[in-house]
Design brief:
Blueprint lengths: L8 H7 L9 H22 L9 E5 L5 E3 H14 L5 E6 L17 E9 L10 E9 L10 H4 L8 E7 L3 E6 L4 E7 L4 E6 L10 E3 L10 H10 L11 E2 L5 H11 L2 E4 L12 H14 L3 E3 L19 E4 L1 H11 L6
Parallel strand pairs: 3-4, 10-11, 10-12
Antiparallel strand pairs: 1-2, 4-5, 5-6, 6-7, 7-8, 8-9, 12-14, 13-14
Helix pairs in contact: 1-2, 2-3, 5-8
Bound molecules: 2,5-anhydro-1,6-di-O-phosphono-D-glucitol and manganese (II) ion (MN) (2 copies).
Length: 338
């Protein structure tokens, strides 16, 4: 007889509350609302090739990028699932420029939710993995009023929970409340997220790097030297590294979490802040990777210590195994290994 217990996401959060007195039943309910949204998005993603939901809406989002229909579908589902539970005083989505306020008819809560409803949406048409990213903060201003900018613009170290859902060969939800990281795979028959990856620890070092190397010419010299170093032959340090790049951050980060290595989206001479968004891409991933024993920096400092100034602020990101992130940091400081 196997000793394995069925552990649902809801039960896991409730049983974990001894360790997190702060994360009482409320966090459990809130994550369960999020997992419902994830199940609906997962279903829609799976049938995307069959329905006319594929393709562009024809409009651009606030970053000037074309919005796919599925991005907006995922955004709408998340708002619908999260705006009436009484947990939040404000929501912030990649797809909306301003804070999304909770309708007056619903109770206001003490948390703020940031989300990237669909990450890696350029991969929808080619059936590659995409994801949803979320990040939760506690409000700073007093209860009972709508959340304001001050509540939203908090450093990543203030996150009380973060996670992502990867819609891949199976759908997996990974979350942390800061101490440990756990993954739950969606059973498509029962519609239940079941614990499949308990206490994920990222390897201290690995031989995989992940970056859009097509931008090489535009990088700063330290980064160019680091990437060239990874491609040299040296048995002792396990070089050359392998390159893996899906172009969906959730997919690239999930692999990095499980296999180790480094994922980078750097700044370059055209985009001084890189491409990824601090509040709903970099910070939640940094919280997860740090809780799993890894590191996340913007090239100069710890991602989660950056004080945000705008909801949709961009940031360069170097994230993954501790050894690998510390090595790129050295190269960027001008201390190469030669
Ligand atoms: P989104 O689909 O939410 O706009 O995010 C796309 C991001 C991220 O998923 C990925 O790591 C990155 O864009 C890839 O960018 P490049 O195509 O420039 O490599
Ligand atoms: Mn994204
Ligand atoms: Mn997105």
């Amino acid at each position: 007889m196997t000793k394995t217990r069925f552990m649902t996401l809801a039960r896991h959060i409730i049983e974990g509350k001894k360790k997190h007195p702060e994360a009482t039943g409320e966090l459990s309910k809130l994550l369960s609302d999020l997992s419902l949204a994830a199940k609906i998005i997962s279903l829609e993603v799976n049938k995307a090739g069959l329905s006319n939901i594929l393709g562009f809406t024809g409009s651009s989002n606030i970053h000037g990028e074309q919005v796919k229909k599925l991005d907006m579908f995922a955004h709408d589902i998340l708002v619908k699932a999260m705006d009436h539970g009484g947990h939040f005083c404000a929501l912030v989505s990649e797809e909306k420029e301003n804070i999304i306020h909770i309708p007056a008819k619903h109770k206001l809560g003490k948390y703020i939710l940031f989300f990237d409803p669909l990450d890696g949406s350029s991969n929808i048409e080619v059936n590659n993995s995409i994801g949803t990213i979320f990040s939760i903060y506690k409000r700073l201003t007093s209860d009972g009023k709508p959340g304001i900018m001050e509540d939203c613009l908090q450093q990543g170290i203030k996150q009380i929970a973060a996670g992502y859902v990867l819609y891949g060969s199976s759908t997996i939800l990974v979350y942390t409340t800061g101490e440990s990281v756990h993954g739950f795979t969606l059973d498509p028959l029962f519609g239940e997220f079941l614990l499949s990856h308990d206490n994920i620890r990222i390897p201290k070092k690995a031989q995989i790097y992940s970056i859009n190397e097509g931008n090489y010419l535009h990088w700063e010299d330290g980064l160019k030297m680091y990437i060239n170093y990874l491609k040299e032959e040296d048995k002792e340090t396990g070089r050359p590294y392998s390159l893996r790049y899906v172009g969906s951050m959730v997919a690239d980060l999930h692999r990095t979490l499980l296999y180790g290595g480094i994922f980078m989206y750097p700044s370059d001479n055209r985009y001084p802040d890189g491409k990824l968004r601090l509040m709903y891409e970099c910070n939640p991933m940094a919280m997860i990777v740090e809780a799993a024993g890894g590191k996340a920096i913007n090239g100069r400092k710890r991602i989660m210590e950056v004080q945000p100034e705008k909801l949709h602020e961009r940031s360069p990101l170097y994230i993954g195994s501790k050894y690998d992130v510390e090595l790129v940091e050295e190269f960027m400081k001008g201390n190469s290994r030669k």
